[in-house]
Write a structure and sequence with these properties.
Blueprint lengths: L4 H7 L9 E3 L19 E3 L3 E5 L2 E5 L3 H5 L6 E4 L5 H12 L4 E5 L12 H20 L2 E4 L2 H9 L7 E3 L7 H10 L4 H8 L6 E6 L8 H13 L4 E6 L5 H8 L5 E5 L4 H9 L3 E2 L8 H7 L4
Parallel strand pairs: 1-2, 5-6, 6-7, 7-8, 9-10, 9-12, 10-11
Antiparallel strand pairs: 3-4
Length: 295
């Protein structure tokens, strides 16, 4: 994804550390935006193949032969069993006595409550299988201390777990925030078609069902019916964008900006906002909110 690019670029500047990033297209309808070349770090692009099995995603990446015969000393992979190539790499590298390190949230959220009875049984099976994979791996790089505790509870020794404090490089965002502060909010709101005295609640992130952006817009609509001067701004794209635009796009209080990658454009949009609101699954948008001085 685009937000990972600065991390790998900084890693490439570490003297004496060699690595290669294998990457491919984003999963369809995931809302993830894949970074585009050129890249300033070693990388190999592969063609991913996507399937659906019992309502779940399965991804095949043609990377096994390249890695097995590429003289790699270790592999670092996401803690997701939908990438079937990872299972082969885990088995082979452990057989050779080479490290296999997972990285991820530790405990991956799964909307089991929204699945059928069969789906919930499958979800439990996935959870158990992922716990077994943890015990077979060499180490884990967790996004947070909470994730690290979950991995430890699942059976991995604590000294094999590292907390990365998953985030994104905020330096450009903070600089854009400082520049946007020099512009009167009234001017930005006028250009965006936002009422000068409105309270603006902004969603920032991928537009897909688990984020529940529809809930935010429904509540804003109800608040306005009660006489409150509230408007909504939606920044991002994804599979839910078209349905959301169809349901709320005709309302003058609802502003869809689409995906925003330019830091100054983002700074102006958030300068016009009063708060970031994420109804359900919370991601790195929280970091962006704080970088722009928003709750």
């Amino acid at each position: 994804p685009t937000y990972r690019r600065p991390f790998f670029e900084q890693l490439a500047q570490v003297i004496g550390r060699e690595y290669v990033v294998f990457h491919g297209a984003a999963e369809p309808n995931s809302g993830v935006v894949a970074a585009e070349p050129p890249f300033r770090f070693p990388n190999i692009r592969v063609k991913c193949r996507f399937f659906r099995v019992f309502g779940r995603s399965v991804v095949y990446q043609p990377i096994v032969a390249r890695i097995l015969f590429g003289n790699f000393a270790a592999v670092v992979v996401g803690h997701e069993i939908k990438y079937v190539a990872y299972l082969f790499l885990l088995a082979w590298f452990r057989l050779l006595g080479r490290p296999v390190i997972f990285w991820g949230q530790g405990r991956t959220k799964d909307p089991a409550r929204r699945r059928s009875a069969v789906g919930r049984v499958l979800t439990e099976g996935v959870r158990v299988f992922k716990s077994l994979l943890l015990r077979a791996s060499s180490g884990y790089m967790a996004y947070s201390e909470l994730g690290a505790r979950y991995v430890a509870d699942a059976g991995m020794a604590r000294d094999r777990i590292t907390v990365l404090w998953n985030t994104i490089d905020m330096s450009a965002e903070i600089a854009a925030y400082e520049r946007a502060r020099q512009i009167p909010r009234t001017e930005i709101r006028r250009l965006e078609g936002i009422a000068e005295d409105a309270v603006v609640l902004t969603f920032l992130g991928r537009l897909y069902a688990p984020k529940r952006v529809d809930l935010l817009l429904t509540i804003v609509d109800e608040m306005r019916r009660d006489g409150l001067n509230v408007e909504a701004m939606v920044i991002g794209s994804g599979p839910e964008e078209a349905p959301l635009r169809a349901a709320f796009g005709s309302h003058p209080w609802c502003h869809f900006l689409g995906p925003v990658y330019d830091a100054d454009r983002m700074g102006k949009a958030l300068r016009a906002s009063d708060a970031i609101v994420i109804p359900d699954y919370i991601g790195l948008a929280v970091n962006q909110a704080f970088a722009h001085g928003l709750p």
